[in-house]
């Protein structure tokens, strides 16, 4: 007696319509939003697509009565600041919710201070309270390597990690945990916690943006606020990006947003100084070359 349907029979089964199953999940809408929100990041988007594909196939297998195991959804996001890690985590929550792998799909973002106490008996209740709020969704732990401080015997980060490990193992259906931070520090963090590393199936590295990608991001940010570059300002802003990337504390899209905020202030001040004349609509919406070249980045070169 056959224990499973033949391939010929399966091909006639309406439940095997992969395209329809995919459409029913509506996750393409989430992926489309992700593509609109984030420039570049092709390897990241590819990995999210792969995870989504696995979950859709699992859903199809489940519809046909096949055994479906827990796919292991805990993740590690590594990369520089401002590369879209939190945005991707939010959209991942939407995808998992639509596929039935998350009851609520919400994202709770925390750091060490939210999990680790300052005295004996303080860490466990803090960590458990955070986990309670995150249940049914995703817990995003930023700069997760700060949880582990082996040189400090009085540090309670190890207690928080132990509680997280228990939840990751025993409540995998109720919570997805994402550890995030700089790649080199995260690698050391996992090396010192083999139990933690073994529970994370998906390691996603977020590359830095290129200058051209950052220019596109900047133009998108301006458009959201109903501003635009003049043609010459666009060229100068690309030059600004190239110079700024070589300086300390550069944070990709975050640094671009900060730079544009300062450019808008210079534009406002310039218009205010010229308040003796009537302002046009173009005056109010256009960032010109000098709004950018007054940045200290150019004075340092």
UniProtKB/TrEMBL annotation:
Belongs to the CbxX/CfxQ family. This is CfxQ protein homolog. Keywords: ATP-binding, Chloroplast, Nucleotide-binding, Plastid. One of its GO terms (molecular function) is ATP binding. Residues 71-210 form the AAA+ ATPase domain. Transmembrane segments: none annotated. The keyword Chloroplast applies. Pfam families: AAA, AAA_lid_6. The keyword Chloroplast applies. CDD domains: AAA. SUPFAM superfamilies: P-loop containing nucleoside triphosphate hydrolases.
